Amino acid sequence: MDKRKKVLVVGASAKDYALIKKFKNYECDLFVLPVNPAIAEIAECVDIRPNNVQEILEFAVANSIDLTIVSDEAAIKNNITELFQANEQLIFAPTAQSSNFVLSRSLCKKFLYKLKIPAPKFAVFDRLQVAVDYLKNASMPQVVSADENRCDIDRLVCTTFSTAKTFVEDLFCCKDEKKIVLEDYVYGHEFTFYVVTDGYQAVHLATVANFKFSENGDGGLLTDGIGAFTPDYKVSKDVENDVMRHVVQKVLLELQRRETPYLGILGVNCVLQEDGGFVTLDFKPFLSDHDADAVLNLVEENMLTLFEACAIGSFADDYDSINVADNSSVSCVILSRSEGIPIKGLDIVESDISHFGVKKNKYLEYETVKGKTLVVTRTAKTLSRARKYLYEDIELINFDGKKYRTDICEKVENY
User: Fold this and answer.
1) What is the domain range of residue 23?
2) Tell me, what's the pLDDT at 1?
3) Among 10, 26, 30, 356, fewest CB within 10 Å belongs to which?
């Protein structure tokens, strides 16, 4: 009889919560770091910071971990993968070198330009006045971004020169950014094309429609994601094939040429335009918080076996596709205006819930965190049915200061 596998997940956000729920279906013991109160109810949490990769390695060795899965960007930047591989520990994650174009917006834009992949017009600046001078003649709206993804507001879609100038000054002077990226805002339908790859072969995992703006009708602030649905009926098979051939395969071949193959999940963020073409915005080093449940709910493959195959080098022999259910999923992020507010109704909803670091009070009620608090996901045979049930469940979840978009996946009666 095979022994139970021991799996370590490095990352404790909503996407990791979704992954851990998926792995609970398998014969494995789960360890997760850093500590997340909600995750601690379903897996053993380890009090190690993700950027302390040497201590993580020591924990993996001491506890005979069979596979480590990393979504945390701090751990990836600190090159946990190369450290683990050098010590013969199986790991599913890209190296720091292979993923630098994913983790840095400026390197991403330059990478896209080098590979001649269609992308918005952009410019990179390390001096305030030069950036302001560029804005004087730039087309509006402009997307103004910090070079690296932050937890706070690090991107803004600016419709006027004065707004863009103020935000650039804020990034350089108040937030002490050393480098910023300016790019033309591209109108159209945003989607993410996800693949699983061992660095040499890539297999399509999912295509997800993204809702990035905080308010209905794509108003308000630009976020990492506030809602999603999959499969994305607006993206044709021809477009998916083009993204695979002209983006994913180009990227993997270039990284192979550099001898830094990319191992893991790679998300390609794109905008579908009215003429049927697309431009590439950037990349994700794993599933996003707002869409992880939606994607994983449809996957029928054993994800542990899949990730292991990538880590040990048998992926190309074992997989030419990933089995997914003929269902649909819709997700919505619920935000809170305040911290520490009891959340009512979670025990009566049927949708999947993933948590952003929420914890229970002395009455065993979950309490809100300020900002993104929950991801609610519903899966059904059709998108229209999944959406209907999702919003019925969201109405059952109550706390003071609840906020969410009500237009996720609108007008899908025929899907």
Assistant:
1) 5-96
2) 41
3) 26
